[in-house]
Write a structure and sequence with these properties.
The complex is a heterodimer of chains A (about 110) and B (about 425). Chain A has about 110 residues and is of the alpha+beta class. Chain A has helices at about 35-40, 90-100, and strands spanning about 5, 10-15, 20-25, 50-55, 65-70, 75-80. In chain B, strand 10 and strand 11 (about 225-235) form a beta hairpin. The longest helix of chain B has 17 residues, at about 125-140. The chains are: A alpha+beta (about 110), B alpha/beta (about 425). The interface of A and B includes residues 1, 36, 40, 52 and 70 of A.
Chain lengths: ~110, ~425
């Protein structure tokens, strides 16, 4: 069972209070985009075995979206951060590097 | 390989069971194979078996990082059915179901296929309409299903409560020829048959890299050395994304944990499979008497083979209302399997951007029932470059917008 802290309202609660929203930091493509870009945005996912950046919504709380960095194997949560960013903030990257020295931040596609 | 038969049992009984042979050889990797299949679960072994049986390709290795059938093949709830809505799904699942009927004879290995019938309960008016539509679609596809009323459901399943306050049973989609089989035996039977054809089933052999030259596959690197091949089939379910990454392409797949649990063994009380999709629960009784219960998937990506506790709680809470006797059962075991889920909840059987590499994945929460059909179709795809059963399941369908949308139609607790 995951314990998450919502960075919007500061509440710490277990996972039934939240809803997962899939991979974070996808670049949106719309009209005028190439087929490859649109397919990548809509369907293709990194699905890593290890560190994963993802979107969550505090559905039974403040109702707002935020981001989390989590390990998909150990379920360790490295931290949560605002949804108003397109890349993970430095303090989260540092925290992950502390815990996973071999980990490389993903290159944006 | 000696044949299994009633006579063999009698013969061995008379000589203290000293004549039984190993079911499959413990093979060492060779330098080169015509085809390598990664993943010795049901789908991988079935692919290798039909490569040999239907196409005469027997210089094949099946590589497995753990042990044979140790992934989802041994973790599912063993339900076999083919009552899907879309035509391409019905074709491959019905092929699969029909192959299960003769599998024990084909493999000379008792897979305990039990065509006991599968009911999918309709517990909302929306589901009633959905299943009536599926029954009509199945009629056109040549899949025998029937929409039945609540009285008939009660007759087939005496322990059910059809007047529940929250989820009354309004009817059900009944497939009399669906059922269950022993999942381990399916993997073991295929492994024995593959080994008998001269194929190498290599356990504890983890693929660490995929080698290609000029966009064409030349072999794999493993923890037991490099192995060359002309053709490579990836059949690794939840870990497909990981392997695709090694080969240099991405997949429209997310891996999540799906849970199941079994109760203590009790006397026979239910001789059909019941699926209650509104409440994310399905149940059957094993030959040992345990009630085998399947639950829902986690909402977030993970590789834990465990699953969130609250899903078990939700499943059991809802089942107690439909099957009041469940409340008196003690549960023995709970576990999870990593299922690979695609955007349209349909599998991918396809060529890939790397020439000579084929992928079979994305079976999500319903892979066991598809093992023989998937292997049959995948073998044809690898041997001939295309198969009528796999045409619709290509990777390109996501770019072209030709989805095989079973996310609602299959009506399963995805």
């Amino acid at each position: 069972m995951l314990i998450l802290t919502c960075p919007n309202c500061g509440v710490t609660a277990e996972e039934t209070e939240f809803h997962a929203g899939g991979e974070a930091h996808l670049t949106r493509f719309g009209p005028g985009a190439s087929d490859d870009d649109f397919e990548n945005y809509l369907f293709m996912r990194d699905n890593p075995k290890g560190v994963h950046f993802e979107r969550w919504r505090h559905v039974y709380g403040c109702g707002k979206w935020f981001h989390a960095a989590r390990d998909t194997v150990t379920l360790e949560i490295f931290g949560t951060y605002t949804a108003q960013t397109s890349t993970p903030p430095q303090n989260i990257i540092d925290k992950i590097s502390d815990r996973r020295p071999d980990w490389q931040p993903p290159q944006k596609q | 390989m000696k044949k299994y038969s009633a006579f063999a049992i009698a013969r061995e009984a008379l000589r203290h069971h000293t004549g039984w042979q190993r079911a499959w050889r413990d093979a060492q990797p060779k330098k080169r194979y015509d085809a390598i299949i990664i993943g010795a679960g049901g789908h991988g072994l079935a692919t290798a078996y039909y490569l040999g049986k239907n196409f005469g390709i027997t210089n094949v290795a099946i590589l497995e990082k753990g042990w044979l059938g140790g992934g989802n093949t041994g973790r599912n709830t063993t339900i076999i059915r083919s009552n899907y809505l879309q035509d391409p799904s019905a074709a491959i699942y019905e092929k699969s179901r029909s192959l299960y009927e003769t599998m024990s004879q084909d493999l000379n290995y008792n897979v305990m296929f039990s065509p006991r019938g599968v009911i999918m309960l309709a517990q909302t008016h929306h589901e009633v309409r959905g299943y009536q539509r599926t029954a009509h679609a199945n009629m056109l596809q040549g899949v025998t299903t029937e929409f039945i009323g609540p009285e008939k459901v009660k007759e087939l399943v005496p322990i059910i409560n059809i007047n529940g306050p929250r989820y009354p049973v309004l009817g059900g989609l009944w497939q009399a020829r669906g059922g269950t089989a022993r999942h381990d035996a399916v993997a073991w039977g295929y492994a024995r048959a593959c080994s008998d054809m001269g194929m190498d089933v290599i356990q504890k052999c983890e693929v660490t890299g995929i080698r290609s030259e000029n966009g064409k596959v030349v072999g794999v690197s493993t923890n037991r050395g490099d192995i060359d091949c002309d053709k490579l089939g990836m059949v690794v379910a939840g870990h497909s994304g990981h392997l695709a990454d090694m080969a240099g392409f991405r997949l429209p797949i997310e891996s999540v944990s799906l849970q199941a649990l079994v109760s203590e063994p009790i006397k026979p009380c239910m001789d059909v499979v019941v699926m209650a999709n509104t409440v994310h629960g399905y149940m059957s009784q094993s030959d040992k008497g345990e009630m085998v219960i399947g639950g829902g998937t986690d909402g977030y990506n993970n590789y834990t083979q465990r699953g969130s506790f609250h899903h078990i709680e939700e499943t059991v809470r809802a089942l107690i209302e439909t099957f009041p006797m469940v409340s008196r059962l003690k549960m023995l075991r709970q576990w999870g399997g990593i299922v690979d889920v695609t955007g349209d909840r349909s599998p991918i059987l396809s060529k890939t951007p790397v020439e000579g590499v084929f992928i079979n994945c994305g079976w999500g929460t319903g892979g066991f029932k598809a093992i023989p059909g998937s292997g049959w179709a995948m073998a044809e795809l690898i041997a001939k470059g295309r198969s009528p059963l796999t045409d619709a399941f290509g990777l390109n369908r996501f770019q072209e917008g030709r989805f095989i949308d079973e996310s609602v139609a299959a009506g399963v607790a995805h």
